[in-house]
C-alpha cells in the first residue's frame, strides 16, 4: 500500500514539474534547481564557456589531441564491437583504457573542472564512466520502446549532477550525434508539444533549435542533463558512433580527489553494466523525501 502511494506521489510530483516548470523533472527538484541556479549565478566569472553553460545548459569545452585518444581507440577495436539486439555495444573498460581516461581527465579536462568546482561551490566526483558504440536501426514513429535513450528526456536528479561527453570517433550527423535542447528550448518543447513524459509527446521540433553534438574525435562537451531535454541520436544504416559519457556529481561535504569514487567503488564507477550506471548518482543527486531535499538546499 505504501509503495503504491509512493508511486502515485512520484507521478504527481513529475506531472506538477511539467505543468509549472515545463521541464521533464520533478516539481520538487525543479524548485531546488531554480534556487541553485540563482546561487550559482552569483558565482559566475567573466568566462564565456561558463556563462554559456549556465545560460544554455550545455557548452563545448575543448578538443583532446588525437594522440591522447589513440590508446582508447585501439582497445575499442580489440574488443571487436558488433551490433546486437540492443543496437549498442558497451565496452569493458580495462586497465589500459582506465590509464588513458585518467590522463585525458588530468591533462585536458581538469582545468575546466576546477572552475566548475567554484561554480558549484562543491568538490566534483566522477560517479560513472560509460564507453559505448551506438549502432543504427529503424526507429518507428511514436514507438514506446527505447534501445539507448533515443526519446527526449531529462535525467531526474537535482542539478548538482551533469555529464561530460567525449567523442571517441569522428561523429557526423549521419552517425547519430547526441541531440540537446537548451534550457529555454526545453521549456518551449514541453509547452508546445504536449509533453507528458519520454514516451508521450508530439514529434514536432524545429531542427534549428536542436544542438547536434557533431565533431571530430576528442571533442569534449558538458551538459546539464537535469534541465536540458536530450536524446541519443540514431545513426543511419552502416554508421555508428563511439562516445565516452562521464557522469559527475557535486558534493560539498567531501573534500577528495575527483577520482575518489573510482578508487573506492571501482565496480560502480568503471562498470559498463546498466544497473551500475546511476548507483552513485542516485545516492548523491536523487534525494528522497523533504528532509533530504532540504539538506541539498542548504548546501547548493
Query: Beta-strand level of the residues, as a percent range?
Result: 15-25%
How many strands in all?
Answer: 9
Strand order of the largest sheet: 1-7-4-9-3-2
Low-confidence stretches: none
Distance between the termini: 34 Å
Order of helices and strands: HHHEHEHEEEHEEEEHHHH
Oligomer: single chain
Mean pLDDT equals 93
- Fraction of residues in helix: 25-40%
Helical stretch count? 10
Give the structural class: alpha+beta
Rounded to the nearest angstrom, the radius of gyration is 19 Å
Which SSEs are present, and which pair or pack?
Blueprint: H1 2-21, H2 27-41, H3 48-56, E1 58-63, H4 66-78, E2 88-90, H5 95-120, E3 123-135, E4 161-167, E5 179-180, H6 183-192, E6 211-212, E7 219-223, E8 230-231, E9 240-251, H7 260-264, H8 266-269, H9 279-285, H10 290-299
Antiparallel strand pairs: 1-7, 2-3, 3-9, 4-7, 4-9, 5-6, 5-8
How would you describe the overall organization of this protein?
The radius of gyration is 19 Å and the shape is globular. It has ten helices and nine strands. The protein has helices at 2-21, 27-41, 48-56, 66-78, 95-120, 183-192, 260-264, 266-269, 279-285, 290-299, and strands spanning 58-63, 88-90, 123-135, 161-167, 179-180, 211-212, 219-223, 230-231, 240-251. With 300 residues, it is α+β, with helices and mostly antiparallel strands. The strands form two sheets. The chain has a six-stranded antiparallel sheet. It has a three-stranded antiparallel sheet with strand order 6-5-8, with no helix packed on it.
